[in-house]
Design a protein that fits this description.
CATH architecture of the largest domain: 3-Layer(aba) Sandwich
Number of strands: 10
Shape: globular
CATH class of the largest domain: Alpha Beta
Largest sheet: 10 strands, mixed
Number of domains: 2
Strand content: 15-25%
Bound molecules: glutathione
Structural class: alpha/beta
CATH topology of the largest domain: Glutaredoxin
Distance between the termini: 34 Å
Amino acid sequence: MAELILHHYPESLFSEKARAMLNARGLAWRSVIIPMIMPRPDTIPLTGGYRRTPVLQVGADVYCDTALIAARLDGEGSGASFFPAASRLAAQTLARWVDTELFWAAVTLRFQPSNMGSFFSSGEAAAAFAADRANFSQGSTVRRLPIEESLPRYQVFLAELESQLSDGRAYLFGAEWTIADFSVYHVLWFIHAGGAMADDLARHPAATAWFGRMGAFGVARGVEMSGAQALQVAADATPAPIVNPASDLADVPLGAAVDVGPTDYGVMPSRGELLHCDTASIIIAREHERTGLVHVHFPRHGFGVTRV
Ligand SMILES: N[C@@H](CCC(=O)N[C@@H](CS)C(=O)NCC(=O)O)C(=O)O
């Protein structure tokens, strides 16, 4: 298999989820650190428009969204599946709730003035971030949560987490991890990165021990590579063949020109030619002078396809 290349930045919580999943499976990976704000001249040529973070590149295949990155990594490396049959439904559903509903509470909690820590190096950096995220939020359908909603949402979740783990189990659904552990971990990691909320977690000993176990997976940082080198990797590679290509979209046949993007926030789409669409994933082909032909993969859940 071609090298696993994660395009990410240190402060990004969904990147922390991807880093923890890569490390938990004992995988070697390359790290391309991207800017926290646009422009990202060495990432957008790969995705063709999608601008959320992180993305995983494997040769000339690009995987958007950590839900799909988890599925891509599940067969690689070692350790239990992220999606064990016995708890797949519960784990996936919890992961989706945490990655959206708890995530928005986490954003509010992390950016409280008392919990910002050293997130911004200067006032200019803070202003540039605010302007970038205002652009990012164009077209968003998500309601930002006030602190009065965020704090109790988090606190009741923490109490339920404590109760779930209090029988001494190592992970949320038993002795082995599932995708839900990684989703809960990265959201708690973000809330607690600012330092001001440490007491809330400390009051929950089983959750604290579990958080420490998961945090060990987040430590390794991959072997750095430049964005330009990663684009060259794509240019030198051929996309993996698609097994049984088909489209389940009634009025969008394979080969149609499409825009594919998230439906909730950060909705900037990628444009390409539809290669595959089923209930699990959407795949498009696109070309760029710096990458040649690449296949860009998206999860179906939370993404929309528009014919152009
Ligand atoms: N559902 C997506 C969420 C990704 C996401 O929201 N990432 C944040 C950073 S943690 C983002 O894209 N922020 C804007 C940016 O980095 O441009 C996933 O699982 O990958």
